[in-house]
Amino acid sequence: MRQSFAPLATGQDNNLNLIRLVAAFCVLVSHAWPISLGPQALEPLEATTGFSLGALAVFVFFAISGFLISASFERSSSPWRYVRARIARIYPGLIVSISLVTFIMGPVLTRLSPMDYLASTDTWRAWLGNVSLLRLDYHLPGVFENNPYPTVQGSLWTLPVEMRLYVVVALIGVLGLLRKPLPLMGAVAVGLFALRQTEGLEFTGAYALRSLWYPGLPFFLGMALYLMRARIPASAIIAFGLVVVAVISAHGPLAYPAMALATSYGALWLAGLPSGRLREFNRAGDYSYGVYIYAFPMQGLVVALLGEMGPLSNIALATPITLALAVLSWHWVERPAMRILRRKPIPQANSASQTP
Q1: Among 31, 162, 255, 283, which is 20 to 30 Å from 192 by CA?
Q2: How high is the pLDDT of residue 347?
Q3: Number of domains comprising the chain
Q4: Average confidence (pLDDT) over 14-34
Q5: Helix (H), strand (E) counts: the chain
Q6: CA distance linking residue 204 with residue 2, whole number of Å
Q7: Is 322 among the domain residues?
Q8: Per-residue model confidence (pLDDT) at position 48
């Protein structure tokens, strides 16, 4: 019997949580080189293929997101419930993480006095811009200034892109285009090609629009796999063939779309593989988001506290701290917030029945 991607859209008996967690740790591993050695340092994969391990992990995140977010909109009883679900997934964990880094770690590590740090408008501007995702600020006053890579929040850049893609899905869904996959995918392909041609041109909103191409392409590929989930086979031969094409295309003009397609298809194919005991990982929780948002500041923290170190030492020291914070974030912040914000409102009795 031919395997398809349809089972991924109908339940949680898959490997998606595990794949996302592995991808989050791949980002941590990739960032260990610049954080430890400086922005000029390239991790081995990037030096040989042109794509860092972190970039491939981001492609995986976006592909899975494109698949699941499209399914989420179709399952939602209204656009408002879809919006609430997206807010519940992104913002509670983010707000707590940014607040802890800004107001707990920041005053301890800044070269300013704690009072000057907390009184600085730059501190509050960074906090507000980062928790809202409206104006990211990757630095905090006086924090990590002596680190080889003085950035505090180097991973946040993907989150505004993710939010823009959520809006795109909502617009597509409200227009009823999710029920017309072939015309939709044709229109998306034309639109992305047009955006690609604007490279080098400067205009208002250029970065936001171009982010729909990079790193947004895997998101749309994930969406396409969802829309065609019953028609496109989930095949090891296809996955392997796409990887071969991506390797052959490395450093060429088609390197990005080839790699985006290989990682998107490959990640979703792996998610549906029968895996026996690996499926038991789903009982633990979805720690990938917490790992993603805590890893970069924790990697900078160990460098700030312990001084010069190599990438492997940075990985070994930052991983347990990051994982512990991610576990706490899931069980104490993210999951409770999702339960509250996704809860159906209790129907209100009419005014007559409320009158004693």
Answers
A1: 31
A2: 46
A3: 1
A4: 96
A5: 17, 0
A6: 47
A7: yes
A8: 82
